Please model this.
Amino acid sequence: MSSIIALEGVSKSYAGVPAVKSVDLQVTRGERLAIIGPNGAGKSTLFGTIAGEHRPTAGKVWFDGNDVTRARSSKRAMAGMSRTFQVARLMPSMTVRENVFMAALTGQHRGVRFWDMFSSHREVEKRVDVALADSNLEDLAGVSAAALAQGARKTLEMAMAIVQDPKILLLDEPTAGMGFEDARSATAQLKRLLDARPDMTIILTAHDMEVIHSLAERVVLMANGEVVLEGSPAEVASHETTKALYLGHGGAS
Ligand SMILES: Nc1ncnc2c1ncn2[C@@H]1O[C@H](COP(=O)(O)OP(=O)(O)OP(=O)(O)O)[C@@H](O)[C@H]1O
Ligand SMILES: [Mg+2]
Model:
């Protein structure tokens, strides 16, 4: 199977109420996919079935050729899936650098034996340096995570996900809660990070059209738990269905 992620008839109900209804989706290696849709469309729920946070009520989830439908998120993480909110457990009392270092060590556990970790300590230090430089966090390296502003905090979360060198990176609303300027610079920052890693597969959910246009190659539009449209960002943004769905929601403006 050449897809890195494949969903087959994935459904998820909460207490019998369907949130995602029989979704089929294939994501190829290195692809940048955005899942969009109005509030309550089922984006985060679908996302959660990929990350392992939600177990589907029906259907199958494949990751890198393996059926992971019943695999915990920790197991998926070990197999090369990073999710921003999972590694966003910042240690507030630790510095920016220490946080990135801890994330790098966690990523390092993948298939590496204990003694190998010592021999590759320098290697980890090097990867941390690269992640800090790529994220423009060098100047903040010695600052405690608790002291960071919202934008820098998001950038740190991103650096922590990327230093693990995942096969796939899942970003649920990467600019949520940011003001216009912060969102813009975080998007530009993320774009630079991702441009430097063309093999990394990305799935993100977003309301922010700037995020979608600058980061995604393909967009899947969800409504009422179903995929109703897919295409390039420009195609989906200009489609009547999208306009009708977002009318009155004020989301994709
Ligand atoms: N933990 C939960 N328990 C019960 N119902 C839930 C739960 N999470 C989501 N839902 C419901 O499932 C549906 C889909 O929600 P979901 O959060 O997946 O949508 P979304 O597209 O991510 O929305 P948003 O744009 O607001 O983030 C909604 O009707 C929501 O109320
Ligand atoms: Mg959501």
Q: What stands out?
A: Residues 14, 19, 37, 39-45 surround adenosine-5'-triphosphate (ligand 1) (CB under 6 Å). The radius of gyration is 18 Å. The mean pLDDT is 87. The chain has two domains: 1-77+168-253, 81-165.
